[in-house]
Amino acid sequence: MSAAIGATPEAVDVVVIGTGAGGAPLLAELARAGVRVVALEAGRAWDPRDFVADELAADPIYWLSERLSGGATPEAFGGNNSGIGVGGSTLHWGAFTPRADARDLRMAAEGGEDWPFGLDELTPLYETVEAVIGVSGPREYPWDADRRYRLPPVALNAPAQVMQRGCDALGIRHATSPAAVLTADRVEPDGFTRQACISCGHCHQGCRNDAKASTANTWLRIATAHGAEIRDGCMVIDLVRDSSGRISDVVYLRDGVRYRQACGQVFVCAGAVETPRLLLHTGLANSSGQVGRNYMAHVATQVWGIFDDEMRMNKGYPSALITEDFVRPDDADFAGGYLIQSLGVLPVTWANMLSRGGVRGAALVDLLSRYNHAAGIGINGETLPHDDNVLVLSDETDESGMARPLIRFSYHDNERALDAHATKVMRAIWQQAGASDIQVLPRVAHTIGTCRMGRSGDRNVVDPAGRSFDIDNLWICDNSVFPSALAANPALTIMALSLRTARAFLAAR
Amino acid sequence: MTENLIGLHGLGGDSTAWASLDRDAGGGLHVEGIDLPGFGSAAPLGRRDVAAMRDHVIDALSGRARFWLMGQSMGAKIALAVARAAQDGDARLAGLQGLVLLAGSPPAPEPIDAQAREDMLGWFRGHPDDSRAQAEQFVDANSAGPLPEAERAAAVAAVLRSHPEAWWAWLAAGLEEDWRERIGRLDVPALVVAGDEDGALGPQAQAEHMLPHLPNARFVVLRGAAHLLHLERSAVLAQVIGAWMAEFEAAPIAMPADRRDFRALIDGVRVSAGTRAVLQARVQAEPPPAPEAMAACLEAVAGWCLPGVAAEGLVRAAVAACEGGGDGWRFAILPPDAQAWREGVAALDRRAGGALAGLDARARDRLLDEIASGDVAVSREAAFVADVQAALARLHVARPQQMAEMGYDGPAYGGDTPRLPGFAPVGIGVVEPWEPPAGSVWR
Questions:
Q1: CA–CA separation, B197 and B218 (whole Å)
Q2: Using the beta-carbon criterion (under 8 Å), do A152 and B307 form an inter-chain contact?
Q3: How many cross-chain Cβ pairs, A to B, lie less than 8 Å apart?
Q4: For a Cys-Cys bond, which of A384, B159, B249, B413 suits B135, CB 3.0-4.6 Å?
Q5: Contact state of B233 with A70 under an 8 Å Cβ cutoff
Q6: Which residues in chain B have Cβ-Cβ distances shorter than 8 Å to A152?
Q7: What does pLDDT average to in each consecutive run of 10 residues of chain A (509 residues)?
Q8: Do A82 and B328 touch (CB under 8 A)?
Q9: Domain chopping of chain A, boundaries
Q10: Contact A280, A286 (CB under 8 A)
C-alpha cells in the first residue's frame, strides 16, 4: 500500500500500542519510572461531555473495522466487546470488576490451562488497580473474607432488586457488584475531579461525568503527568526488525501518512484480536505457531422477563447485583464456572438481543412495547481453549491495507454443559422473582486468548512476564495473553497484568 | 461576599487546625475555629459529653448572621448536634447555611478499631517524652503521607495542649454516644468529605453511618488522603468547599408540564445539545428510497418480524446503513453487507418463487420461519434474515417516536449543565414525576 511518508519522529525508549486496559497502566508505570515512552492509539481523544446519550450515535467509540465471524457459534464484535479511542475499550466497558477466582487460574486439572502464577501474586495488584481507578462495592464480599472495597456500593436498580428477590427465594447469596464507578465525587491531589455516578445507565455509550473509570481519566492522566506522550489517530501496520532480529521501529498510519517510530522496546496492547492480527500480519513472535490459537470468549447467555412493576431498566448502574455462587457449582458436569449478574440494557441493545435470540413477529413487537417492564439476568462463563477456536487472517484487506481477521469460535461440550446449567439456574431465579414471558437468549462476550502466556516457548507466545519468547524487546499485555478465560470479566485482570508486566520490565532493565 | 466557615476540630486539635485551609481558601471564604472544651485555650468543663460540647459551640456562635459550620472527626458529631438544634428552631442558630463534615464521627457509635481505642485511652499518663511520641504517632497515623513540617508540628503541639481528661472522655464515652435518633434527618445542605485511605471513618463508613441523616448531602472522596483532610489536602479542600457553596446559585432544572409530550422533554434542559441533534436528525432523516424490488422484499421481511410497524422508513434507513460502515463484524459465510443484502434479497425472492412481496402473509411467514430456523453459522439465507431483522428492530426502537411510545426517556438523564441530574432514586416501580408514561407521543 502506498502512502505519503511523514517526518521521522524522535526515537523513544518504549512504544506502547494501544491505550486500553492493557497499555495504559504500564504506560503510567513506565513514565513514572522515567522511561521515555509514547503510546500509539488508533482512535481519537474524547472530551467526555461530547459523548451522546444514544445507542446508535455511540458508534465512534466502537472498533467498527469489520471482522469476520465464523465457527459454529459466531461471535459479535464491534460494540459487543471492542473499542477504539484514547482509553480503548474502557470508554465503553461495563466497568464490572470482579476479581479472578483462584480456581480459575488452575484449570489444567479440569482440562484447561494453568496460569504461570497464582492469585497470591494478583491480589496486591488488584488492590492497587482498585485504588487507582476507584472501585465501589460492598464493604464485605461474601465470597472473599479478606476483600474490602473502599468506595460504597452503587444503588441497586430494579433489575438488581428483582434478582435479589429471586436469589433469596432460592437461597443463593448475592452482593452489590464491584464496579469501577464512583459513588462519591472523587478529587485527586491535583484537584482533578470525577463526579459521582448519576445512575444514567449509559456506561456503554461513554460516561459523560467521568464517574465510570476509563484509562483516560485514570492511568493515562498519570502517564502524561510523568511525561508520556499519547499520539492518537495512529494505526500500527508494521514492526521493523534490525539485523539482530530485534524490533527497531514501529510503522503506523496517521491521516493517511506513513510514519516510522524508532524505539528500544515495543509493548503490543491492542487486545485479543488486533494484537494477534498485527503479529500474524508481520509474521513475528510466532515460532511456536501459537499466535491466534486458543481463542476464547465467555458464555454470556441472558434470560429476560417481564414484571408487573415498572423496571425502567435503563436507570442505574446496569449490572448492580452479582452472585459468585456458581463459580464451582456442586452439581456441575463441566469444567470452570460462571458469574451471574443482573442486567438493565437500553432499547437498541435489547431489540438486538431479542432478534438475535430468535424472538420475532407479534411476540417481538409486544415485548418491545413493554420495555419499561423488562429486566434481565446474565452470566459470564468459562470457555476452554479448543483447537478449532482460532484467529487467522482472511483474504480480505481493510482500509489500512492489512488483512481482516477471521475468528472461528464454536462451543464444545463443556460450554454447552455450562450453558445448560446456567440457563436452568437463571430461569429458576427469574421465575422466583416473578417474571413472565421468560426468554433465554444466547450470547458470546469478550475476546480472550491468542497469544498465550506460559513457561515454555514451544506452546506459548510470551513468558510469564509478558515478554515474547522469540524477540526479547517485544512484549504483549492485554487479554490475548490469558491462559484461561476466567469467569471474571477481563478488564480488571488485564490492568493487574499490565502493572505486573511493567514491573518485570523495570526490574530487568 | 465573603462566607464565614466556622470549624470544630477533631480529637486533639484546636482552632489553629484551620490555618492552612483559611490560607488556601482565598478571599471569598473566611475560616476560623472554635476551641472545644478541654482543647486549645478552652478550659475543660465538668460535663464532657457531646451535649456539653454542643452547648459550648452554640454559645460561641450565637448572634452570627450568616455562617457555615464545619466539623472534622469528633467536631463533626458536635456540628450535627448543633444543626439539630438549628432545625429545632434555636433562634441563635438562624444564620446556619450548611454543614461541612470532614472524616466525620457519625451520630452512631463510631466504628473505631477496638485496639486503637484501647491504646489511645492509655496515652498521656506517663513521661512528657512519651506524650510527645504519642502525639506524633497520632498525627502520623491519621495522615496517609507525610504532612508538611509546619502543619505536622502545629498538629502535634495541639495534641499536647489538649487536656488529657477531655481526650480520655471522648475516647471512653463521647464517640460511643448514640445520637442517631436525636439527629434524625437534617434538611440542611451538607458536604460530606472522606479520605479513601481513612481506616475507620472512610467512604464506606460515611455512606453507612453519616449520609442517611443528610438527604441534602454532597459526598466527596479525597483520593490518597486519610483522616486529617484539612491538613493533608487544604488547597483541594478549599476548592471543593468553594465550588459546593457556589452551586447553590444554580437554577433548578425545569421540566415540561405535560408528561406525555415527549418532544418537549427532548427539547428541554434534561437532554444535551448533542443528543438532541442526533434525535432530531433521526426524526427528519429521509434516506433515499431503496431500489424497488429490494424495498418490496425487505418490507415483506419487516411484515414478518415486526408486524404492524410502519416499515418503509425503517427499510430505507436499513438499506442506507448496510451500504455504510457496518457494525464491526459480519458472519464469515456472508460477503460484505451491501453485497450480502443484494444477494440475500435475490435469494429470498427466488425462494418465494418470484417475489417475497407477492406472497400472502401466511405463505410469507411460513417461508421466512423456515429460513430463520436454519443455522446462521451455516445457512447464508438464515444469516441474512437474522441480520435484516436485527437491523430493522434496532432502527425501530432507536426512533424518538418509538421511544415516546415505549415511555423510554433514557436520554433525559442530563443536558449540558456542569452537574447532570441523572435518575434518583432508582428501583422497582420508581417513576419520577416528570417522566412520561408508555404511550406518550412525539409531535
A1: 19
A2: no
A3: 274
A4: B159
A5: no
A6: 203-204, 206-208
A7: 84 98 98 98 97 96 97 96 97 98 97 97 98 97 97 98 98 98 97 98 98 98 98 98 98 97 98 98 98 98 98 98 98 98 98 97 98 98 98 96 98 98 98 98 97 98 98 98 98 98 96
A8: yes
A9: 7-248+280-508
A10: yes
Output the CA angle A351-A357-A363, nearest 5 degrees.
Answer: 65
The answer to whether A322 and A178 have CB atoms below 8 angstroms apart is yes
Chain A residues with CB under 8 Å of B143 CB are none
CB-facing half-sphere around the CA of B252: CA atoms within 13 A: 3
- Given a cut of 60, is residue B76 above it in pLDDT? yes
- Parallel/antiparallel/unpaired status of strands A12-17 and B190-195: unpaired
Chain B 225-284, residues with CB within 8 Å of chain A CB atoms? 225, 233, 235-236, 239-240, 271-272, 274-275, 278-279, 282
Q: What residues in A contact B314, CB-CB < 8 Å?
A: none
CB A467 within 8 A of CB A335: no
Strand runs (DSSP E) across A242-307, as ranges? 247-254, 257-268, 296-299, 302-306
Amino acid letter at B90?
Answer: D
The residue type of B191 is L
Residues A31 and A227: beta-carbon distance below 8 Å: yes
> In B225-379, which residue ranges form alpha helices assigned H by DSSP?
229-232, 234-246, 262-267, 273-284, 292-305, 312-322, 337-351, 361-372
Return the ∠ at Cα A319 (arms to A314 and A325), rounded to 5°: 150
Three-class SS state of A374: strand
The CA distances from residue A239 to A43, A236, A379, A474, in Å, are 19, 8, 38, 10
Burial per residue of A83-118, b for 16 or more beta-carbon CB atoms within 10 angstroms, e otherwise:
bbbbbbbbbbbbbbbbbbbebbbbbeebebbebbee
Q: State which fold the B3-247 domain adopts.
A: Rossmann fold (3.40.50)
Concatenate the DSSP letters of all residues of B252-295 into one string: PPP--S-TTBHHHHHHSTTB-HHHHHHHHHHHH--PPPPPHHHH
Q: Specify the DSSP element, H or E, that contains A42.
A: none
End-to-end CA separation in angstroms for chain B: 47
CB-based contact A90:A418 (threshold 8 Å): no
Cell digits of residue A374:
423488562
Cis peptide before A153 (omega within 30 of 0): no
SS3 content of chain B, % helix, strand, coil (to 5): 50, 10, 40
B329, B370, B375: which to substitute to probe chain A, counting the most A Cβ within 10 Å? B329
How many CB atoms neighbour CB B418 within 10 A?
Answer: 10
Dihedral (CA of B193, B198, B202, B204) sign: positive
Q: What CATH code is assigned to A7-248+280-508?
A: 3.50.50.60
**In the predicted structure, residue B43 carries a pLDDT above the cut 90:** yes
Q: Are B331 and B383 spatial neighbours (Cβ–Cβ below 8 Å)?
A: yes
Query: Rounded CA gap, A27 and A16, in Å?
Result: 7
Beta bridge partners of A191: none
Cβ within 8 Å of A, B 398-417: 398, 402-403, 405-408, 410-411, 413-414, 416
For cell 505486573, the residue is: A500
Place B253 in a pLDDT band, splitting at 50, 70 and 90.
Answer: confident
Which residue, among A444, A445, A441, has the nearest Cα to A354 in the 3D structure?
Answer: A441
Q: Please name the residue of chain B whose CA is at the shortest distance from the CA of residue A373.
A: B429
CA dihedral B128, B129, B133, B138 (to 10 degrees): 0
| pTM greater than 0.90 | yes
Q: ipTM score of the complex?
A: 0.97
> Within chain B, which residue ranges are assigned CATH 3.40.50.1820?
3-247
